[in-house]
Amino acid sequence: MSKPIKIGQNKGNDYLTKPFYPEELIARIRERFDNPPEENVREEIYRFGHTVFNYSNNELRSGTAKTLVTSRQAEILRMLAKNVNTAVARESILSLVWGADTYANSLALNVQITYLRRAIQNDSKLSIVSLNKKGYMLKDS
């Protein structure tokens, strides 16, 4: 059986004594979530073709065009971006992004690749090439 916690005995620095003002609570919440610790603010950026891919915020920029991709699409693009002009095995993508190489996940990968092709269509130097029986390649010409 656990010990009951007595009010006012919280050792954390986020404890508000009662009564408190709602504005103070809101200010403390904003402070905690709007200012993440510096070690968590590392940006991961890839450059290929005329495009800049910011993995940290799922954003692709090509010239003045900005495209946001889903987290799953960002994971796939990250794998391709780390291996520009090199084949990435389909099984590797499925294992990393979906956790399993199943038929349903394979179909889902096909759909996500279609969305990624649309996302990079503003950059004429880039394409995602399907390699029969091998996987995919982000081609930078």
Quick recap:
The protein is an alpha+beta fold and 141 residues long. It has helices spanning 22-34, 71-81, 90-98, 103-119, and strands spanning 45-48, 51-54, 59-62, 65-68, 88-89, 126-131, 135-140. It contains 4 helices and 7 strands; from the N terminus they run αββββαβααββ.
Structural description of this entry:
With 141 residues, the protein is α+β, with helices and mostly antiparallel strands. Helix content is 35%, strand content 21%. The protein has a domain of 96 residues: Winged helix-like DNA-binding domain superfamily/Winged helix DNA-binding domain (Arc Repressor Mutant, subunit A). The chain contains four helices and seven strands; from the N terminus they run αββββαβααββ. The chain has a four-stranded antiparallel β-sheet with strand order 1-2-3-4, with helices on one face. It has a three-stranded antiparallel β-sheet with strand order 5-7-6. It is elongated and about 65 Å long. About 5% of the residues have low confidence.
